[in-house]
Automatic annotation (TrEMBL):
Stored InterPro entries: TPR-like_helical_dom_sf, TPR_rpt, TTC19
Name of the protein in question: Tetratricopeptide repeat domain 19
Places the protein is found: Mitochondrion
Cellular component aspect of the GO annotation: mitochondrial inner membrane
UniProt similarity note: Belongs to the TTC19 family.
Classification of source organism: Eukaryota, Metazoa, Chordata, Craniata, Vertebrata
Pfam families: TPR_12 (PF13424), TPR_7 (PF13176)
GO biological process terms on file: mitochondrial respiratory chain complex III assembly
Keywords: Coiled coil, Mitochondrion, Repeat, TPR repeat, Transit peptide
Length: 248
């Protein structure tokens, strides 16, 4: 019920239900660092973030990340060849959950324009996803795109372009379902570097795929990007005309 309330946007109800479920589990002897408890703690942190309760959100994210990191350190103390199959599954699940927590915290920090901290979290989440899921996994490509966005916002356009181009190339070869979103991000970064013709080309490709996918939110975002390109072209044309008028 807590998850249903959360998905429906009933945050106050979801908060109460998650807290009640956690209290029940902890009272029954479930450890605080159990993955199920951490998952609910992450949901609570996300709820606090959406409610603009910054202190509670940051505390919640920190609890999740630090608890999982400590848990993984215990796994490291055990030699790999001594682990049972069940223990290895738990290690991988715990590592991926840490990646999810870092991803969620990165998005929260990005929303607050804490770009350095967001970049660090995205980088760690990406490293985890690559390690456990591989370079071509859909989530790996999404994280590459998200990290590229942060680099772009920080003015590191060349680094952002390298990363998003890699993601787009893999996405194209693996028929990624969100390929249009990656193309749109590439187009936006190209726009910020002044490569308007390349930007339009990728925006147009992204627009066609977004329409095929029925992704109206992406269609609107891409159309806004094309309008920005049009605006930039007009500004460049006006600048050229002004400079030409100054010539003898």
């Amino acid at each position: 019920m807590a998850n249903v309330a959360y998905l429906q946007g009933h945050l106050d109800s979801a908060e109460k239900l998650f807290k009640a479920a956690m209290s029940f589990m902890l009272a029954g002897g479930t450890p605080e660092d159990d993955n199920a408890v951490i998952e609910m703690s992450l949901k609570l942190a996300t709820i606090y973030a959406e409610q603009n309760k910054a202190e509670l959100a940051e505390h919640g994210f920190r609890f999740c990340v630090e608890s999982l990191e400590a848990k993984l350190e215990k796994h490291k103390e055990q030699m790999e060849d001594e682990r049972t199959e069940e223990q290895e599954v738990l290690r991988k699940d715990t590592h991926l959950l840490l990646g999810l927590c870092l991803d969620s915290r990165a998005r929260y920090r990005a929303s607050l324009l804490q770009l350095d901290r967001a970049r660090q979290d995205y980088r760690k989440a990406l490293d985890i996803c690559r390690t456990e899921q591989g370079d071509t996994h859909p989530q790996t490509l999404v994280l590459m795109s998200d990290l590229a966005t942060i680099l772009d916002l920080q003015g590191r356009h060349d680094d952002a372009l390298v990363l998003i181009q890699q993601a787009v190339d893999v996405s194209r070869s693996t028929d990624h379902e969100d390929h249009h979103l990656l193309l749109g991000n590439l187009a936006g970064i190209l726009l910020h570097t002044g490569r308007l013709e390349d930007s339009v080309r990728f925006y147009q490709e992204a627009l066609g795929l977004a329409k095929q996918a029925g992704d109206q939110a992406a269609v609107q975002q891409i159309q806004e990007g094309l309008e920005e390109v049009k605006k930039r072209r007009g500004q460049e044309r006006n600048k050229q005309e002004e400079e030409a008028a100054k010539l003898p």
